[in-house]
C-alpha cells in the first residue's frame, strides 16, 4: 500500500476521506447527510426555475480541469451539487415540468435505487443472483394483472424503450426462421429485404432500431394516419401487399398506444387481424400510455393488445419509478432466446431446472437490480394509489382541454385520450409560418418565466404546443398557472411574430 | 381523488403510507432508515455465504401472488429485504467473491446513485439537462488523463460493455460509407458481406453485437491465439486477405486488453498497423483491464490503444463504481452521429452552438445521470487512492500465483498480467476428462463452504479454475482463505472423480 499522504488535513474524519468506502459507520453518517441533502432538494425543487440559465460549457467550466490526485472530503461533493450541478439541471422533478413526458423520482423509487446500487448484483444468470431475476419477473407478472394483459407473457426489464423496441424487432427478424439470419446475417445471397411498418407518428426509436438491426431506413415504411393521428389500417394493408408484390418481405408492425406527439392510439385489434393474416410480428409500444391500463375506464384503448407478440411500457414514465426502467413482455420467449442466446465458457453453469437466465433474452449481458424500485413503488402506493394519481392526471388534462376549447385565442390540435394535450395559439391575422413562429415564441415565453416548461412538436407540418401531465407532484394549481401564462403571453407572442 | 381508505391502520405515520412520496420530511425519515439498513447490510455481508441456498422459484414463492391493492408501510418493504431478498442474493459485495470479475458498491458510488435517482434527469439532449451531459463528458475526459489516452477522444457513458461494443461496430459499419447501410440496410442488391475479426478469447458480446447488427455469426471470424492467449496477428492478416479475396468486405477488428477467461492482452500495436493498412475500424475492449491503465507500471499493456477508433472500459468493473457504468470513447464522433442521429419533431430544439446532444451517439434515447457515481468515486478516492487499491489487487494476484506455482498439486494455466489467476488442480492418476471433472468439483466444493465463490472456464478445451480479484473489500486474508480451501479440498475432489 502507498504511504499515507500528509496533505490529508482536509478530511472530515480522523481516518481520512477514504475510510468511508470501507467502514459501514462512516457510510451511515455520510448516507444520512446525502438523504438530508436530497430531502432539502426535493422540498425546494418547485421553487427553482425548471430550465437552468446556463450556456453550453458553463457547467464544465465550473469543474477542475484535472482529476484530483488525493481524496476529497464528502463536504466538497455535496457543496459542488449546490454550486455546479443544481444550477445546471433541467428539473424533471419540478411540478411545472410539462415537456416531453413527465417522469417522477418518487420516494420509494429513489430509495429502491439506493438499495439496488448497494446490492450491486449482476443478474446475468439466475445463479449470479437468484433474487434479482425472480423479483424482476414476479413484479412484472403482477403488472400483467394490474393492466389486464395475458398472464402467461414472458417478462423482463430493459433499460429503455429504445432497447425494448430493438429487442422486439430482433425477435421479429429471427422469427423469419428460413433465412437463418442469426447465422448468416442479412446479406447472404438470395435473401429478400425485410420491411417493418409503423405509423408516421411512431417513436423515432423504431427507425433507430431498424437502422441498428441492419435493415436501414428503407426497412421501415411509415404508414399515414387518420384525422386523429391513428394508423390507417387500409393504408397499412395496401403497403404490405404492395411490398410483398415488389419482392420485399414484410415481417413486423409496430402499433403505438399513446404516440409521442399526440398520444394517439393505433387501432390495435384491426392491426392484429392483419398481422395474423400476413404472419407479421406485432409489437405494441405503450411506453407512455401503458400506465393508463391501470384504469378500467381506459381499457378500451388497449383492446387487441393481448394479441401482441411483444409489448412494452415504461414504469419510468408515468408510473413514478425513476429512470431507467422499461417493462418488456413477449408471448414468444423461445424466439428471443433463439435470437440472443450465447453461452461463453466463463458463464457455463450446471443447468438448474426452471431457472431463467435473463442474459439469453436481450442485448445486454450486465443487469442490475432494477426491479427493487418498481416493487417498492407498487407496494408503497398500492394499485389503488397509482390508479388515483393517474386518474387525476387524466382529469387535469380534460380540464385543461376544456379551458383551451373555451378560449378562441387557442385551439385543440388533437384528441387527448390520456394526460397530454396538444393545442395551438391562434392569431387570425398571421399567415401559417407566422403563426408557427408565434407558437414557438409562446412556448419560449411561457417557459422563460421559470415555473413552467412546455415543449412543442409539429403536427401536419404545423408547430403545436404540447402540455404533458405526468409528474407525481403536478397538481391543478400547476396546470392552472401554465394556462394563465399561456393566456397572458398570447398577445406578445403574436406581436413578435407579426 | 378517491376517498381515503379506512383500512389504513397499518401505516406508520398519521398521514398514511402514501404521504412520504410527497412530503420531503417523510422522505428524510424513511431515507435515514434505508441508509441504516444498507449500512447494516454492508457491515455483515462478509459473514453471509456468497452463494444463496435457494432453488429456482424459492424467492418468487416468498412474494404475494397478487399486487397489493392498498399501500404498505415502509417497515414491510425493509423487512422483506431481510426475509426474501437477502437470502436469495449472490453477494457480489462479499470480499470472497472471486468469480467472473469482481465489482464493488463503494460508499460514494452508492450515494452518487442515490442523488442521480433523485435528480431523475433524462439527458437525451443537452437542453433536457445540461449538467447531466457536461459532468458526464468532463469526468470521462479526466479519465483520459488518468489512463494516458488521447485527450481529444469523444466520450460518453453507456450502460454496459455489450452496448458499447454494439455502438462501436455500428459505427464501423457506417464507416463503409459507399454502402449507404443506414439508408438501404445490409441486404440491398450488390452489397458485399461484411466481416469483423476478434480473437477466439474475445467476449461473447462481440458475437452478440454482430448478430444484432444483422451481420450474423458469419460476420465474425474468430482468430486463433498464441500460447499466451493473445491474438495471432499473422493469422489475422491471413484471414483478412483470404476473406477479401473471397469477396467478403473486412471492416473491423476487436482487440481485447484483458480477455474474460485469462485477461490476456492482444498485441494492439501490431493490430493497429494492420487496421491502418487495410482500413479497418479498430475497437479496443478493455472492459475489465482498462482500470489498470491507472498504473504507470501497467501502461505497456496498453501500447497502441491510442490508435483505436473506439475504446471501452468499465468503471463498474474494477473501478469501484456500482453497475451499470461503461465508458465509451471514439476518435470519430462524426461517424457515430451519422449512424445514429435522428431528431423527431417532438425533440427539435434551437441549435445551441457547442452543445452536445448525446442521444445522437448511440442506441438509447433515455439517459440517466450515471456520471455522478463515477465523479464521486474518483473524487473520494483520488487518483492515488484508486491506484493504490488496483496495485494491491495486482500484488495479491502475484502472491496467489506464487503460492499455486510452488504447490505441485496445482499448475498455473495462463499468464496473469493483472488481478486474475487461471490455474488447475492436478491429479496425476486421472485422465483428462477425470481431471476436468475434478476441477469442476473442486470449484464447487470451495464455493460450497460459504465465504468464497470461484468459477471455472475452459482453456484449450480443459476445465480451468479462475480466481479474479476486483472487489474493493477483498484483502489478503480472503485470498489466503480461498487458497487454503483449494488445498484442503484438493484430495476429496480427486477421489470423487477417480
From TrEMBL, chains A, B:
GO cellular component: cytoplasm
Annotated positions of the N6-(pyridoxal phosphate)lysine modification: 317
Transmembrane segments: none
Molecular function GO terms recorded: carboxy-lyase activity; pyridoxal phosphate binding
Cofactor names: pyridoxal 5'-phosphate
Entry superkingdom: Bacteria
UniProt feature coiled coil, ranges: none
Keywords: Decarboxylase, Lyase, Pyridoxal phosphate
Region: Disordered, residue numbers: 1-24
Pfam families: Pyridoxal_deC (PF00282)
Any Gene Ontology biological process: amino acid metabolic process
Family as reported in the entry's similarity comment: Belongs to the group II decarboxylase family.
Name used for this protein in its record: Amino acid decarboxylase
Provenance organism: Eiseniibacteriota bacterium
Lineage per the UniProt record: Bacteria, Candidatus Eiseniibacteriota
